[in-house]
Design brief:
Order of helices and strands: HHHHHEEH
Radius of gyration: 18 Å
Structural class: mainly alpha
Number of strands: 2
Strand order of the largest sheet: 1-2
Strand content: under 5%
Length: 189
């Protein structure tokens, strides 16, 4: 008889490829068919798919699971990632604006992670903040379709900002992979 373990067993919902999160027919990301035409559409497609991936990694978890920390001394959690990316989206708007900076969503240093507590109201607020901040940043950038245009006080190129957004979501999707596997053993792309 094997000893009991508090470590979750690895599993996936995929039916075709066991290393996938879900089967190809259930994957909401644009992974089949013709890819978008043009650089801007390609960058936006990658960003959209990483955003969807992050949400997929959070699906089906309750407030306690979403707020569960990775390993000490890290304060990282899936809920913290949602809050952090909302804060980051807001900060990106500050980069491209000549106006006074928007205030932080989570005041203190690391408030996005430290304030990620196991309460459903916090989960709901994090999802709402992320959707709101993503939409606002998307709308601000939609006014600047020229990828070479330089914006804000520091003159950041639209292309650079879009690539940085993709990089930020991709990096945190990697964190989300590990966090989710630690919570319930679910694995996949």
């Amino acid at each position: 008889m094997e000893p009991m373990s508090d470590q979750p067993a690895r599993w996936s919902r995929a039916t075709v490829y066991p290393d996938m999160w879900v089967g190809p027919d259930d994957d909401p990301r644009n992974s089949e068919g013709v890819s978008p035409d043009g650089e801007l559409a390609t960058l936006e497609d990658f960003l959209t798919n990483y955003r969807i991936t992050l949400r997929m990694k959070c699906e089906g978890l309750d407030a306690e699971q979403l707020s569960r920390r990775s390993v000490p001394p890290s304060s990282m959690s899936l809920l913290g990632l949602l809050r952090h990316l909302a804060e980051t989206e807001r900060d990106w708007r500050n980069w491209i604006s000549d106006a006074e900076p928007l205030p932080k969503l989570y005041d203190e240093h690391d408030g996005d992670f430290d304030g990620a507590v196991a309460e459903q109201t916090e989960v709901d607020a994090a999802y709402a903040a992320l959707a709101r901040e993503q939409a606002a940043t998307d709308a601000a950038l939609a006014e600047h379709p020229d990828l070479s245009e330089r914006l804000g006080k520091d003159g950041i190129a639209v292309r650079e900002l879009l690539v940085h957004r993709i990089e930020e979501y991709a990096r945190h999707c990697g964190h989300a992979d590990l966090l989710r596997e630690r919570i319930d053993g679910r694995v996949g792309q």
